[in-house]
Amino acid sequence: MDLILLAELAVNGVLTGLLYSLFAIGLVLIYKASSVPNLSQGGLTMAGAYVVLALAHDMGLPLWVAIPLAAVVMFVFGMGIERVALRRLAGRPVVMILMMTLGIDIFLRGTTLAIWGGTSRSVDLGVSYEPLFVGDILVSRIHLLGAAVAILLFVVFVLFFRTRLGIRLRAIADDYMASWSVGISVERGVGLSWGLASIVAVSAGIIWGEIQGVDQSLSLLLLKGLTVAVLGGLDSIFGAVLAGIILGIIENVGSAYLDPFVGGGSRDLIMAAVLILTVMLRPHGLFGRTDIERV
Q1: CA atoms of 182 and 203, how far apart (whole Å)
Q2: Where do the domains of the chain lie?
């Protein structure tokens, strides 16, 4: 394999990995505020894309209006999920909350299927598909746009978690009881994290919807996002971005070598291997916090 092709695979792997990070940031936001992985992020991403399409295609609104409006709708919807479904589970075993988020994901998939059907719909962001060369390297324009959005959200949330409100969310994740004792509204903090994760879901949904279309398969991005979040550390936004880049490069370059021997489909094998090895060797991820408890 020549160096130009290897460089092209690596560069496009970085861009694809940043798109994975765009999804994983939503998982990290909720975990940082509630210490619970959100298994419904795939359903929220799919629902966010469908809301954009409903506003833009069905109601005729321009995309520059539909996308911010969909973000507002999903923010309220995310906070509503926390208020109606999850708040009553406060203090219950983590596995019950996990099952609730999984149930929400299944509910969202069933609801969108009932309303919009199973036919794939396209999102037209107006991105040109003309070849874009950076030197001798061919780069996807839509992946470049998605990577820029991921980096922008990373910067925004890094700055957000340095504000007073962001510090309160981090305190909630550290200790619910201690946060309550100093007057922090834990319920509002966790609800806010769900609202912010739903906004991220809209961003991921429309970018991935442009790439592969909007249908039920968007919810399956949860597997990619969860792998990235676990590898980077479930409570680290920087870790999610770096882990996405690492996974994207390994996946892109590795599949180019392995596909000729296994007949294709090696991307999923690589993703599964990364997830399993991370859980076995470094369960708190690259930048996750290690909590040591005395028993």
Answers
A1: 35
A2: 3-219
